[in-house]
Amino acid sequence: MSTTGNTPDEVLATMRNAVRESEALLESTAGAVGEEAGKLRAKIQKAGDSAKAACHRIEEKALEGARATDKVIRSHPYESIGIAFGVGLLIGVLVTRK
Predict the structure, then answer these.
(1) What is the DSSP letter of 34?
(2) Cα gap 3→96, rounded to integer Å
(3) Is 11 exposed, middle or buried (0-12, 13-18, 19+ CB in 10 A)?
(4) How far is Cα 50 from Cα 63, in angstroms, rounded to an integer?
(5) pLDDT digits (tens, 9 = 90+) for 49-59
(6) What DSSP line would sit under 48-97, residue for residue?
(7) pLDDT tens digits, residue range 22-49?
(8) How far is CA 57 from CA 16, 74, 78, 92, 96, in A?
(9) Residue 37, Cα to own-chain centre: how many angstroms?
(10) Phi and psi at residue 58, to the nearest 5°
(11) Separation CA 84–CA 62 (nearest Å)
């Protein structure tokens, strides 16, 4: 399984795939004993590690986005306030519209 997804959609697809693989492997190891069970547990561990790595990448991208947003807002505070006010006003008008 590859965990090299760069877009959020690819990362989420990787996570979904890892969860599906883990569930399938857990079902197949219910009655397994011995060397085969050890191999299957190792595969489950690998899938779990893959999901953790994907979560870490999502977290890093979210932090990068938050930092970029913070930088823009700090460099243009009045414009940011104006845009937020305008969006809030538009939402208010649309919500109260009958």
Answers:
(1) S
(2) 46
(3) buried
(4) 20
(5) 787 787 788 88
(6) HHHHHHHHHHHHHHHHHHHHHHHHHHHHSHHHHHHHHHHHHHHHHHHHH-
(7) 777 777 766 666 777 777 777 777 877 7
(8) 14, 26, 33, 36, 40
(9) 30
(10) -60, -45
(11) 21
